[in-house]
Amino acid sequence: MSAISSSKPPQIRTSEAKDNFRPLRKIESVPADKYRIGQIGKPWGPSEKAQWLAQTRVHRSYLEEVVSKLRKLDRNTFTVVQYGALKSDPERLPLLAVVSNEWKDDRRTVLVTGGVHGYETSGVQGTILFLQTAASAYVGKFNLVVIPCVSPWGYERVERWNSSCLDPNRSFGPSPSTHTEESAAIKSFLATLNVRSWHVHVDCHETTDTDETEYMPARAALNGALYKRCHIPDGFYLVGNSLDPTPEFHKFMIDYVRKVTHIAPPAEDGTLIEEPVTQPGVIEVPVDRLGLCASVTGCRYNTTTEVYPDSRREGVDGDQCNRAQRAAITGALDYTGTPGWRARRAEIQERDTL
């Protein structure tokens, strides 16, 4: 059955008032057996991928909304490092990291990332908000490395994939054959820092209604498959590592975030995005096997945040989502930076071996 419909690109909605910087792709619901590109049972080839690329459009400016904000950070506290540039437009799409100046080799080193999926706005803007308003308080405790926008091409076009129809958040595995331009650049950059052991990594994401109406149907079509609808969580949640769980760490973060926004309740079957809920607002997956960005450092205290900007609950908007991301980051740092965290870690490890 043909799955080709109109080639007209989806419409973009721009939120009102203080949320007007957060355009969200909005289209009519996509039937499970139909997407505007490709055919059921036939994975995309070069022609379909070119068709998809041709219908993408620039909807916002990475230079104005991201780069300009990073350039205004306190230079006495942070250095903005360009660790690469995307080949499609090196001048407009530089790859930037923010590194704390007061670096000590014997200090715990933290990585914060956002915008691995470019369309997930608060992953980028929430990370920048952390840099602008909270990060300086942690400079004396940690070496900070913050990459606010891993995928600037996707940010400008409000897309999940990069320009090669690849998902950057499935490209951080050990095999170079799975790497994207974005993940390869980050891996190379982190290697230059010579960090012996990373302490914490928080990777900031969103789950949106357009996952159901655009991005997941596109992924199914890419593989020539039927799309099966799933439950979109209404609220914030975290994704931990099922092969090395850190429940107390995640609970600490959730308690910080619930002061800012609501925590996602599970679906009727007790899951979030079809994964069992291990505690309120937390699911676990094998992050290394999936090649998630959260696996890039190999540290134990890693997590992926997910906030829901399309919630119809009162008060939910782009600003609240950004503040929720900041709360998650500060919660992660406060948990591992407070007195007694080493004892807590030893207690958890001992209990896990019983």
TrEMBL record:
Any one biological process term the GO annotation gives: proteolysis
Named cofactor requirement(s): Zn(2+)
Domain of life of the source: Eukaryota
Cited Gene3D superfamilies: Zn peptidases
Example of a GO MF term: zinc ion binding
Region called Disordered, residue ranges: 1-20
Similarity section: Belongs to the peptidase M14 family.
Listed name of the protein: Peptidase M14 domain-containing protein
Lineage start: Eukaryota, Sar, Stramenopiles, Ochrophyta, Bolidophyceae
